[in-house]
Amino acid sequence: MKEKDHIREELEGLSPLLAGIKEKGLQPPRAPEAYFQSLPDDVLRRIRAEEGLVREESPKARAGWRESLWRPVEFLMQHRYAAGLAGAAALVAVGLYLFWPDNPEATPQPAAMASLSREEIAEYITTNIELFDIGLLVEASGPGVDEAPNPDLFQGVGDEELNRYLEQYLEETSLDELEDLL
81 to each of 86, 91, 147, how far by Cα in Å? Predict the structure, then answer.
C-alpha cells in the first residue's frame, strides 16, 4: 500500500487535476474518432500552409467518398477480424470444392461403357493400372483358386530327381535365407 500511496502523492504533486478526476467521478478526456489516423496528414497540411505551398482546408472538406467508404471496412481489417475472415473464406472454399457436384458428362455412362471392346478396356487398364485395386483385378481376371484346374506340375519327374534338386538347393542356400523362407 505504501507504494500506491507514494504514486498517488506524486501524481497530486505533478497534476492535481488528473489526481482528482477519479475521485470526482469524471471521465478522462477522449480523442475524437479517427483522430490519430488523420493527425499526420493534418500536421503536414498545416506545415505546408505555413510555408505557403498550399492553402489550408478543413479536414472534413478533404475527406472524400473513398474515406467514408473505407471507415466501416477499416474496422474489419484489424488483425483478429482479418484472420477470422480469412479462415471463414478458406472454409467456404474447401466446402465448395468438396461438395460441388461433379460434371455429369465426366462420369462414365453405362451405355457408353457397354460399347467398349475388350481391347479398349485392357488398354485403359494397362495405362491406368495405379488407379485400380489389385485384389479386384485378380478377382475379375478369371476363376478363383478353388475353381481353377489343378494341373500336376511334376508329371514325369521322379522322386529321386526331386530329392536331388532339394538337396542341391539346400546346400546353396544359407541359414538366413532359409529362416526368411519360413
Answer: 9, 15, 67
